[in-house]
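Example record

Each entry pairs one chain with its bound ligand, MF3.
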Amino acid sequence: MSITYKDAEGVRGMREACRLASEVLDYLTPHVKPGVTTREIDRLAADYMVNVQGTKSATLGYQPPGYPPYPASLCTSLNHVVCHGIPNDKPLKKGDIMNIDVTVITRDGWFGDNSRMYIIGDASIAAKRLCAITYEAMWHGIVRVKPGARLGDIGFAIQKFAESNGYSVVREFCGHGIGKVFHEEPQVLHYGKPGTLEELKPGMTFTIEPMINAGRKDIKEMGDGWTIVTKDHSLSAQWEHTILVTETGYEVLTLSAGSPPPPAFVAAAAPAPATA
Ligand code: MF3
Ligand code: CO
Ligand code: CO
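C-alpha cells for the complex follow.
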C-alpha cells in the first residue's frame, strides 16, 4: 500500500464523508451530559448514521490484525482513557472529560474521521486546560500543512507546543492517511523533527489527531484488547480532523455547523483572502 492522491472526484467524496462525520458529533453534542451512558450515545450515533445520513460506522466490526472486532459505532474515551474507549453502561458524571471519535463511510465508499473533547457539565480548571491546549496543539500541526512541507514539521509543531505547556505526547498512536481505506499511508506522528519524513503534496488526505497526557507519555492496554489508558492514570485528551493538502495550503474537511472555531493564532496567521 502507498499514499493515495485524491483527484477532483476523490476530493468531492472526501469533503462529503468528512462533513457527515463532523455532523454526527454535532448531533451528539446536546446528548453528552451527566447521567447519560456512553452506550446510549453510541446507540444515538448508530441510528443517526444509518437512518438519517445513510452512512455506516467504520469502527463497528473493525478488526485490524491482532485485534478483536471493535464492538461499537464510535469510541468514547473518558478521563484517563487515551483512545479506543468502548461505550458501556456507566453514566457520565459532572467533571468528566471525554473524547468522542466518529468515522463514517459514505455510500460511495469514502471515509471521514474526526473527534472532539466534551466537558461533562463542568470540569476542573486543569481538565479544561488540557482540552484547550490539546485543541491548539492539533491546530499548530494543521497550519504547517502545505505542499513542500514535511510530516516531521507537523509532528514537531505539535510536540513543541504540548511539551512547552507541561504535557506529554503519546507515541504509540498517530494520524493516518485516509480515503477509500480507513487507515492508509502515511503515518502522521505527533512528535518529530522539522524537515524530516514524507513531503506533502496536493491531493493527500490524512488525519491529525494528537493524544496529549497531563502526566507522563506512557500508556497501557486494557484486557478488552482495545482500550488504551495512561500508565500513570493522568488525564488524557485528543482532537482529530481530516485534512486535505491543497495547491496552496490546507483544507480542514471535517467541518460542520457545530465545529469549534480555530484558535485565534490561526485566524491571525491566515486572514481570509481579500475580495476584489
Ligand atoms: N477513529 C480512530 C482513529 O482516529 C480509530 C478507531 S478504531 C476503533 O483512527 F476500532 F477503535 F474504533
Ligand atoms: Co483517525
Ligand atoms: Co478517529
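The CA atoms of residues 151 and 197 lie 6 Å apart.
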